[in-house]
Design a protein that fits this description.
heterodimer; A: about 250 residues; two-stranded antiparallel sheet; 15 strands; about 30% strand; globular; B: alpha/beta; nine-stranded mixed sheet; five-stranded parallel sheet; about 25% helix
C-alpha cells in the first residue's frame, strides 16, 4: 500500500520571528527554513511502515514556492521514495492545500495519508481534517501510535485527559502528535541518495484547483509584552507577596 | 445572525470550555444556540440551557454520537449548519478534531483559535507560537471558528433556555471507538483550573515530580509540565502546557524548574499571576514572572508547602 505524506516548508522552530514594521506579516526574509517538525514525524512514521513491510511506497508532497523542493529532498533523505511539488507563489491556506492534496490522493490512490497535526507558522491545525472531509475518509488526529491491520488502522490519540484508541477503515487520514516517534537524523549518504530520487512538479492550475485565499490578514502585531516582575529573596517573601499583594492565595 | 456553539462534554458533564465559547459567541452578537451531540446526554443539555446568553439548546442523541467520533459529530453539525452564520467550537482536542471537517464540507475557511472578536467577520489569533497576533477577516458565508478559551471569560449561569430534541445523524460508518485511558485524579482539569502548578526538566525525574503533589494539594491546583519534562518522561503527555500542548490562563501559575522556552511561554503567559522558581537566575521564565525566586526547587518547594 502507498502512503502519502504532505510536508510544509516553515520558518525553523529555533528562529524567533519578528513582526514587520508595517504590520503586514512576519519577516521571513533570510531566515532559516525547515520542514515543519510535525511533518518530519509523519515522514518518519511512513518510512517505518515501509521498513516494516506494511507500506510499499512513500510519496512526499509539498505545496508552495519552488524552494519547497528542499523540504521534499529532506523527506526523501528520511525515507520517502519520491516527491511531488505543487508549485505556486500564492499564499496557501489550509482549505486550498486540502483541495490540492485531494486531487493528488485521487490520482495516487494511497491507503493512508499521514500529516503533521499543525504547522508551526500559522498554527492552524486544519489540513488533515479538511482533507479527510473532502475525500470522505475516516480520520485520527493527534496520533501517538499507529497499527495497521487488515483494511483498518488502529490509532491511539492524545486527547484531553488521556489517550483514546479508535479504529479507522482504510483509506484514512492520520495526523501526528509529538510522541508518535522520534525522527531519525538524516545521514549524508541518504541526502546524496535523495538527490537522485524522482521529484515531479505540478501546479494548482494543472490540478484544476482554485487556491485563492479565503481569509484576509488585515494586520500582524507583536503580542502585548508581559513585563518581568520582581525577584523575591526567599520562600517567606514569596508567600507574603502571594497573600498580601497579589491576593491569589488565602 | 445566529450562532451555533458545539458543546464540549462527556455525556455526563458539560465541560467548562463551553461557557467560554458562549462568551465568544456573545461578543460576535446574535441568537446563540448550543448543540449537545451525544448519547444519554439530557443532563448536559439541561446544564447548557442555564448558560446566560443561550436562547436554545439542541439535543441530538444517538449511539453513533456517544464517543465524539469526528466523522459522526461533523455529520450532525452539518445537518444543522445551514441555519447559522457562525459555528463555534472550543479549541480543545475534540473541537479541533471536528471543526475543520465541518468547515471543509461547507467549503469555507476555518478561523483557528481566536482569542478576540473585533467584529462578526474579523478576529484575532496567535501565530508563530504566540510570537505574533494576526487580525484576520473572513468573507465566507458561514464562519467556522475554534475559540481559544483563555481569550474569553466564561459566560455565567442563570439563564433558562429551552431544550429541543433534533434528529440525530446516523453513523458515517468510517471509524469505531475502541477504548479510552483516562488518567484518574481528583485535581481540577488543567485547561480550566484556577491554579496550575507546573514542573519542568529541572525536576530531574518522574519520581521527583511527586514533590509537586503536596503543593498542588495545598493550592487546589491542576498539574502541568513543560514539553521538556514530558519528552523526558517525567510527566504524562496531557499535562503539557505550551503552544503545541494546552493553553492555560489561570489566576496563579507556578512554574517550577521550568526555563521558559518560547513554546512554553505561549501556553501560559496570559496567566494572571506567574510565579517562577528556578536556580538559574538567567532563565527566560523570570522575564514573564511576577514573582521570581532563584532557589533550589528541592528545598524551596517543601518549604513553600509548609509556609503556605
Amino acid at each position: 500500500m502507498k502512503v502519502l505524506v504532505p510536508v510544509k516548508r516553515v520558518v525553523d522552530y529555533n528562529v524567533k520571528v519578528r513582526v514587520k514594521s508595517d504590520h503586514t506579516g512576519v519577516d521571513i526574509a533570510n531566515v532559516k527554513m525547515s520542514m515543519n517538525p510535525f511533518d518530519e514525524i509523519a515522514v518518519e512514521e511512513a518510512t517505518r511502515l515501509k521498513e516494516k513491510g506494511a507500506a510499499t511506497e512513500v510519496i512526499a508532497v509539498s505545496c508552495g514556492v519552488a524552494q519547497c523542493q528542499e523540504t521534499l529532498r529532506t523527506a526523501m533523505a528520511i525515507g520517502a521514495d519520491r516527491g511531488i511539488l505543487v508549485q505556486t507563489d500564492v499564499e496557501l491556506q489550509p482549505l486550498a492545500v486540502a483541495k490540492l492534496l485531494k486531487v493528488l490522493a485521487e490520482k495516487e490512490q494511497p491507503s493512508l495519508i499521514i500529516l503533521g497535526k499543525q504547522a508551526i507558522d500559522d498554527d492552524s491545525n486544519q489540513t488533515g481534517q479538511m482533507l479527510a472531509a473532502l475525500l470522505g475518509w475516516s480520520q485520527a488526529t493527534f496520533a501517538s501510535k499507529i497499527e495497521l491491520g487488515d483494511g483498518v488502522a488502529r490509532v491511539t490519540r492524545e486527547v484531553d485527559g488521556g489517550l483514546e484508541t479508535i479504529e479507522l477503515k482504510l483509506p484514512a487520514i492520520v495526523t501526528t502528535d509529538l510522541r508518535l516517534n522520534e525522527p531519525r537524523y538524516v545521514t549524508l549518504p541518504n541526502i546524496m541518495k535523495a538527490k537522485k530520487k524522482q521529484l515531479d512538479t505540478v501546479t494548482p492550475e494543472s490540478l484544476g484547483v482554485d487556491v485563492a485565499p479565503r481569509l484576509k490578514t488585515l494586520k500582524v502585531v507583536e503580542p502585548a509584552a508581559r513585563s518581568a516582575g520582581i525577584k523575591v529573596q526567599d520562600v517567606a517573601a514569596l508567600v507574603d507577596k502571594l497573600k498580601n499583594e497579589a491576593k491569589v492565595v488565602v | 445572525m445566529s450562532i451555533l456553539v458545539i458543546a464540549e462534554h462527556d455525556n455526563v458533564q458539560l465541560k467548562g470550555a463551553t461557557h467560554n465559547v458562549v462568551a465568544a459567541a456573545a461578543k460576535i452578537g446574535g441568537d446563540i444556540h448550543v448543540l449537545v451531540a451525544g448519547a444519554n446526554a439530557r443532563a448536559v443539555a439541561d446544564h447548557a440551557a442555564k448558560i446566560t446568553g443561550v436562547s436554545k439548546v439542541l439535543l441530538a442523541e444517538s449511539p453513533a454520537l456517544a464517543d465524539s467520533l469526528a466523522e459522526n459529530v461533523a455529520k450532525q453539525v452539518l445537518a444543522l449548519a445551514s441555519g447559522y452564520s457562525h459555528i463555534l467550537f472550543a479549541a480543545t482536542a475534540s473541537g479541533k478534531n471536528v471543526s475543520p471537517r465541518v468547515a471543509a464540507s461547507l467549503d469555507v475557511a476555518q478561523i483557528s483559535e481566536i482569542q478576540a472578536v473585533d467584529s462578526p467577520d474579523t478576529f484575532q489569533r496567535a501565530i508563530y507560537a504566540g510570537n505574533a497576533i494576526a487580525t484576520v477577516q473572513s468573507n465566507d458565508p458561514i464562519k467556522v471558528i475554534t475559540v481559544r478559551t483563555t481569550g474569553f471569560d466564561a459566560a455565567p449561569e442563570g439563564g433558562s433556555a429551552s431544550v429541543e430534541t433534533v434528529a440525530a445523524a446516523d453513523s458515517a460508518g468510517l471509524s469505531t471507538f475502541v477504548g479510552r485511558e483516562v488518567a484518574k485524579n481528583d485535581r481540577p482539569e488543567l485547561a480550566g483550573a484556577r491554579v496550575v502548578v507546573s514542573g519542568g526538566r529541572g525536576m530531574g525525574s518522574a519520581e521527583n515530580f511527586k514533590l509537586l503533589d503536596p503543593l498542588a494539594d495545598k493550592l487546589g491546583a491542576a498539574m502541568g509540565a513543560s514539553r521538556a519534562a514530558v519528552d523526558a518522561g517525567y510527566a504524562p503527555n496531557d499535562w503539557q502546557v505550551g503552544q503545541t500542548g494546552k493553553i492555560v490562563a489561570p489566576q496563579l501559575y507556578v512554574a517550577i524548574g521550568i526555563s521558559g522556552a518560547i513554546q512554553h511561554l505561549a501556553g501560559m503567559k496570559d496567566s494572571k499571576v506567574i510565579v517562577a522558581i528556578n536556580k538559574d537566575t538567567e532563565a527566560p521564565i523570570f522575564g514573564v514572572a511576577d514573582y521570581g525566586l532563584v532557589a533550589d526547587l528541592f528545598q524551596a518547594v517543601p518549604e513553600l508547602v509548609t509556609t503556605l
